[in-house]
């Protein structure tokens, strides 16, 4: 396959050729941000008992029906219940019990009146005191009921649900301390190019630092994966073939950068075709037209361009979606908002163009400002951008004030806008 396809076709093609990975069991704290691979149930009622929502006095609501400012109802405080304590005794007419937040509400009481609105007639509000109430209270007022949040055996997190920070606390409270989740993909990243040197070295004439591997590894890590940077691959078919064949034996997904076009030293397409099944070579987008995808020994192999911005866009638009699917996520597209262009923007390329840009907000809504330098060879504009301003296919330029779509780069796919 050599014809150029749309971005949506490319995304669908890659997603169709990956599947969620096997599962593993992790500690509940390590499950944050990951996708549950099973329905998780509580082992007890949450809350396990009816308890007070605040510091106050446990009472019979019926006794306060006539309470008013002019004729307060006065009750004797006969006991005090702290958090972790239990009071099983009776509460007779004319009596109440001092209770703290979180303490079990006695069976003999049916409401709690908060401390701040109760008057002290005598004593200090503790047992032996006499207190007054100047207003009625509702039945079960300020009581958090047993099983209010979950019942024993009830599913509290469903398969496919992303576990949040609050979810970790919810699971812990429900006794779920071991969580089955989809495994994180192990991603091999290999930069190709005889001109490349390690970033720790100072380039001599004709050499450049290998920044792509670090950037793509960072993208993979941000997508929840476990990246491994392989040694730089020299510009020969044999070297790249060996790297790919070795990588698919160990890793879940292989990403190369460079050598994705049609030059004399561009080998990722023939390597994938020669060792497996070549499924895609070009995508109607800029930057990042040259995008190679295929399967080698059943493992997905993706060849990104060598230009930094082109490699980044290819990863964010296509590879990231595949890696999320492999982790069990169900949302694959970054949120998109409509924004006003802050300046005239010319279009001389019919492909869909992704402009590195900065999104701000004013009284009229979102305003987007494309970076001045849109060279595909630069990482800097991406570092200073928070969105991709999208210029649709065609040659239509846009004037300042025009509305265009902007894909947010710093917002999770789970956020619906």
Automatic annotation (TrEMBL):
Ranges where the MoaB/Mog domain occurs: 188-325
Taxonomic superkingdom: Bacteria
Primary enzyme class: transferase
UniProt GO molecular function: metal ion binding; molybdopterin molybdotransferase activity
Reaction catalyzed: adenylyl-molybdopterin + molybdate = Mo-molybdopterin + AMP + H(+)
Cofactor: Mg(2+)
Record's GO cellular component terms: cytosol
BP GO annotations: Mo-molybdopterin cofactor biosynthetic process
EC number in record: 2.10.1.1
Pathway note: Cofactor biosynthesis; molybdopterin biosynthesis
Keywords: Magnesium, Metal-binding, Molybdenum, Molybdenum cofactor biosynthesis, Transferase
SUPFAM superfamilies: MoeA C-terminal domain-like, MoeA N-terminal region -like, Molybdenum cofactor biosynthesis proteins
Function of the protein: Catalyzes the insertion of molybdate into adenylated molybdopterin with the concomitant release of AMP.
Similarity comment text for this entry: Belongs to the MoeA family.
Name of the protein: Molybdopterin molybdenumtransferase
Organism: Ellagibacter isourolithinifaciens
Organism phylogeny: Bacteria, Bacillati, Actinomycetota, Coriobacteriia, Eggerthellales
């Amino acid at each position: 396959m050599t014809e150029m396809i749309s971005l949506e076709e490319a995304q669908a093609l890659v997603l169709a050729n990956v599947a969620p990975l096997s599962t593993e069991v992790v500690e509940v704290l390590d499950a944050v941000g990951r996708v549950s691979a099973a329905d998780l149930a509580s082992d007890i009622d949450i809350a396990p008992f009816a308890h007070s929502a605040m510091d106050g006095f446990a009472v019979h609501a019926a006794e306060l029906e006539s309470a008013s400012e002019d004729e307060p109802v006065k009750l004797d405080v006969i006991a005090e219940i702290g958090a972790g304590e239990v009071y099983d005794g009776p509460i007779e007419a004319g009596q109440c019990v001092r209770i703290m937040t979180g303490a079990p509400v006695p069976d003999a009481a049916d409401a709690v009146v908060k401390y701040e609105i109760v008057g002290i007639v005598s004593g200090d509000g503790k047992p032996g005191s006499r207190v007054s109430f100047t207003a009625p209270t509702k039945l079960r007022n300020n009581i958090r009921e047993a099983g209010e949040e979950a019942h024993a055996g009830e599913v509290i997190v469903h398969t496919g649900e992303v576990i949040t920070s609050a979810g970790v606390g919810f699971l812990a409270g429900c006794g779920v301390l071991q969580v089955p989740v989809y495994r994180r993909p192990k991603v091999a990243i290999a930069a190709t190019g005889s001109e490349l040197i390690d970033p720790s070295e100072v380039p001599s004439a004709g050499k450049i630092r290998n920044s792509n591997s670090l950037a793509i590894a960072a993208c993979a890590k941000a997508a929840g994966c476990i990246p491994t940077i392989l040694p730089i691959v020299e510009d020969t078919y044999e070297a790249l073939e060996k790297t790919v064949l070795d990588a698919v034996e160990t890793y879940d997904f292989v990403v190369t950068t460079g050598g994705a076009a049609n030059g004399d030293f561009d080998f990722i397409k023939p390597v994938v075709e020669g060792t497996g099944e070549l499924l895609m070579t070009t995508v109607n987008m800029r930057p990042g037209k040259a995008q190679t995808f295929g399967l080698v020994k059943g493992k997905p192999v993706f060849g990104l361009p060598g230009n930094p911005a082109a490699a980044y866009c290819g990863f964010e638009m296509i590879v990231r979606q595949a890696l999320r699917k492999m982790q069990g996520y169900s949302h694959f597209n970054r949120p998109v908002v409509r924004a006003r262009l802050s300046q005239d923007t010319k279009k001389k390329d019919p492909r869909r163009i992704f402009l590195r840009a900065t999104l701000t907000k004013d009284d009229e809504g979102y305003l987007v400002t494309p970076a001045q330098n849109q060279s595909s060879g630069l990482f800097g504009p991406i570092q200073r951008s928070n969105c991709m301003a999208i210029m649709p296919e065609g040659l239509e330029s846009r004037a300042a004030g025009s509305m265009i779509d902007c894909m947010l780069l710093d917002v999770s796919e789970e956020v619906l806008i």
